[in-house]
Amino acid sequence: MPAVPSCILDPLREQFLALLPARQVAHPLGCHRPRIADAVVFDKLVQALVFGCGYERLADATCSATTLRRRRDEWAAAGVFDRRRTAVLDAYEAMIGLDLAEVCVDGCITKAPCGGQAAGKSPVDRGKQGVKRSQLAEGAGLPLTTVAAPANVPDQLLLAATVDRLKDWQPLPAEVAVHLDAGYDYTPCRTELADRGLGARIARRGLPAPIQAGRRWVIERTHSWLNDFGRVRRCTERRQVCVEAYLDLAAALVTVRALLRAAWYRYRWDTRPRSPRIR
Questions:
Q1: Cα separation, 231 vs 228, whole angstroms
Q2: Most CB contacts within 10 A, which of 147, 185, 186, 188?
Q3: Is the pLDDT of residue 72 over 90?
Q4: CB atoms within 10 A of CB 203
């Protein structure tokens, strides 16, 4: 049984393999053993993302743990994971349309028991190692950009780096409202948004602000979607590039699932699922 439904995994795998760069064999005699198929390795990496287990537990006769690590590093260095996430969002924009007039930004702290470059002492988990992801989502909750940082970095310090990645979605609407919680109610945050021509919708500190107020509930749902993946919820990767690669892969899976749900009501195709409820 696959880690995710075939209606999500099959198109994602096909497009991912199409983005892989051509492999250059420098050895004059070639390789002494057949190369493991990229499709097999990709399916294993999706399992590692969904289940959060170690590579040794996923290794079998078809693929070893060493091959998984080497291929992961090779693809992450080539930027394939980031291009895959962008390509999925471009497809959603073309078929459904992204709501960029109302965006949300918020931070989420998850566990990182192995430490690493993106880990720090978590202020909400007795100083244990944790990773904070500063997440930006569009109006429907699709994850647009993610910035990974140690858990002890304040949210407001990651705001500039997070909203700067909106430039990938030019041209933006004439007016873009950024919804933030009271943790961003500081003058530097308002200045950063004003300098970029973005409207600030920030909850005031010291005043009751239920989660239903404004559009902030959208980002909470995005965090819930991403925390469904074991590798994101409990990160065991130690290098920043690997953490970001799995975050990009998780965002691509979430976007494909949302695309299928939205397209179910608008389009018809041969492999259309029986129901829009796709897990």
A1: 9
A2: 147
A3: yes
A4: 19
Q: Put residue 97 in one of left, alpha, beta given phi > 0 → left and psi -120 to 50 → alpha.
A: left
Measured CA to CA, the distance from residue 49 to residue 141 in angstroms comes to 20
What total of structural domains would you count in the chain?
1
Per the DSSP assignment, residues forming a β-bridge with 200 are 178
Assigned domain for 3 exists: no
Is residue 223 within 8 Å of residue 106, measured between CB atoms? yes
| Helical packing angle, 240-264 and 38-51, nearest 10° | 90
DSSP for residue 169: G
- 225 part of a folded domain: yes
CA distance 43 to 157: 36
pLDDT surpasses 70 at 59: yes
Q: Could you tell me the CATH number of the domain that includes residue 133?
A: 3.30.420.10
In a domain, 103, yes or no: yes
Question: Please, how many CA atoms are within 13 Å of residue 28, restricted to the half-sphere of its CB?
Answer: 0
pLDDT tens digits along 207-255? 776 655 678 889 999 999 999 999 999 999 999 999 999 999 999 999 9
Structure tokens at 206: 């010291």
Print the domain residue range for 140: 99-237
